[in-house]
Structures are given as C-alpha cells and as structure tokens.
Amino acid sequence: MTDRIREFLRNRREDGPCVVVDLDVVRANYTAFARALPDTRVFYAVKANPDAAILKALAELGSCFDCASVQEIEMALFAGATPDRISFGNTIKKERDIERAYKIGVRLFAVDCYEEVEKIARVAPGARVFCRILCDGAGAEWPLSRKFGCVPEMAPDVLEHAFRLGLSPYGVSFHVGSQQKNVHAWDQALGSAAYIFRECAVRGISLSMVNLGGGFPTKYLQDVPKAQAYGEAIFDSLRRHFGNAIPETIMEPGRGMVGNAGIIETEVVLISKKAESDTMRWVYLDIGKFGGLAETMDEAIRYPLRTPRDGDDTAPCVLAGPTCDSADVLYEKTPVELPLSLSIGDKVLIEACGAYTTTYSAVAFNGFPPLKSYVI
Questions:
Q1: Superfamily (CATH H level) for 260-375
Q2: Taking the model in full, what pTM does it have?
Q3: How far apart are the first and last CA of the chain?
Q4: 23-258 has which CATH code?
Q5: Lowest model confidence (mean pLDDT) among 118-122, 309-313, 359-363
Q6: 190-239: per-residue pLDDT in tens?
Q7: How do the domains of the chain map onto residue ranges?
Q8: 20 to 30 A Cα–Cα from 98, which one of 112, 184, 206, 332?
Q9: Residues identified as active-site
Q10: Which residues does the record list as N6-(pyridoxal phosphate)lysine (modified residue) (predicted)?
C-alpha cells in the first residue's frame, strides 16, 4: 500500500467498500513495460480498469488501447487517444459495432474465423486484421485457452480469406493466459506465429505484426518476475523464431498495468461458526464475488489480506461475501489465516485490487451498490 492510498483511507468519509488506485503506480508500470520491450507498442487492455483518470494518464504517456467494445473505444477517445492508437481486440463483435468503430476511425480489428472476417469486410473495407490463435495458457492462474482463437494451422486460411475480401492481413495474436508467471510462456506461441508468417508468405501475403497479448502478472501472495525479465525472454524468442526479420510487436498489459496500484478497503460484517463444535470460523465481508471479487472463482486469484490485528495469533477461516447467494464464497477449499482477535466492524485491506474489480462489480445485486472507485 502506498503512502498516498494510506492517507486517502485515513481521511475518507465512511461510505462502504471501495477500491483506491494510485496513478503514480500506474505510470511507473507503464514506464517499466515501455522500457522492457522498447520497440513494442503498449496497448493497455481497457477492460482491466476503464476509469477515466487511468485512461487519461496513460493516453498522456503515449499508450495505445486494446478495446473490447464500442463503449471502450469511446472511453479511450474521450481520454485523448486517437483512432490510430486503438485496436478493436475482441474477436466477437456485432457487425454494427464494427461499422461504428470504422466510422470513427478505427482500422485495426481482431479475428479468429472466416465469419468474423466477412463481417469486417462488409462494413470496414480495407481495414487491417490480425488473427488470434489458440494458446494453452499453461502456467497461468487465470487461463484463457478455449473461447478465443483458432488453431495455428487454420490462421493462414483465415488471413488469406481476409486478403481475398479486400482487407489487409496484418498479423497474428495470442494470449498466454492471465497472471502468467512463466517468462518463457510466449516461446511456443511465437513459434506458431513464425510458422503462420512463413505460410502466408508462400501465399503472397506479407504479415507485419505479432500481438504478444497480455498475461503480464501483478504480485498477489507470491513474488512475480519484473517486466524486464519478460522483455528479455520474449525478445530472445523473437530472435530464435524470426531471425533478423523481427516483426513489429504490440503488447496488451492489463492486470500488470493496474493490479498492484489498487487496494480495496472492506469491513467485517459477521464472524460465526456452523456448529458449537466447529473449529472453522466463517468471516463475512461487505464485499464478495458480486461486488468485484469475481476472480476468486475457483479460488484462482488469491489476494493478500491485511487487518488491524496482524501479528496476533491466527487460525484458518472461510472467507465469504455478504449476498444471499451460496456462490458468494471467496476462499473455502483453501481457507485463509486470519487473526483470532478479528472482530465485527474491523476493516480488512485487500491488496493488488486495481484490475478486474470495478469492472466485475455487479449492478446492485441484492441491493448492494457497485464497488466505489477512487483514483488518486
């Protein structure tokens, strides 16, 4: 927790759970990514945290933006980005949304199948397209392995289809899985990308770009490699697979850009047991899966917790949210260690919550308002 966040929480008016993001940390993260791969353009994944202040700060630093919807495109434009700094990176788009993006100047679109190519060709003539390929996401804490992308062997056919319909085949993209702590996870996907470049060249199609995707982690309970380590490993793989003909590259950090910049302050609502003889306490917070902590699903992301009673004796607890839904349990398979002295009304700080919390916060489920967000 930064001194700026600590001071903000000390002085804020009590108004329920909130996330506080320190822009200085976001700016430092952007600089680290830009230095790690200096020849790679940074396209911030807006979905990670679309707060206007974050987008404005990144736009001022020169960031580009990976957008999943027309609404995110409009947010990036309002923040100061120009259309040439925006990628419509969702492979699942309504045709009218493609048309709207094209009309406001966006020219870069993701595809992973013939049908998506055909939609773009109808309403965005001449646009540049890149084909997303499947990646197994091994080693990632939040894998993204099946919904998006086609097998590498299909990608040249998809890109050739785009070429024949008057589009500009631009490159290849992949995603090695969110919260990817293996710096070498990009190597296999870059090998596949190089194969697609060669196959397209045989067909008279010259590709230019490899989109390295996201996956760059933030620190939760365990240390993670620095951005520089990822940059060195990725560049080594680029040289191995592409030789001296290294393509243009872009990357799409989201979690790694804003995750460690945010803290959630929450309150203990109830501490109870399910039986007199039970040794396991249930600790209920005023925020849960539906209030922004959806990534605790299957206990995939384990957030660090801090309490005002740290240092006291601890015991394992089940941690749950406040809503009337049995799915609103954060950690039960692997309970969390919390102080035995923890009491109802105590504040609990959940660290590394700058990414995928406000965007996953439900709109008034059970009447609980969406997570409040402050960017300082």
A1: Lyase, Ornithine Decarboxylase; Chain A, domain 1 (2.40.37.10)
A2: 0.95
A3: 13
A4: 3.20.20.10
A5: 359-363
A6: 999 999 999 999 999 999 999 999 999 999 999 999 999 999 999 999 99
A7: 23-258, 260-375
A8: 206
A9: 324
A10: 47
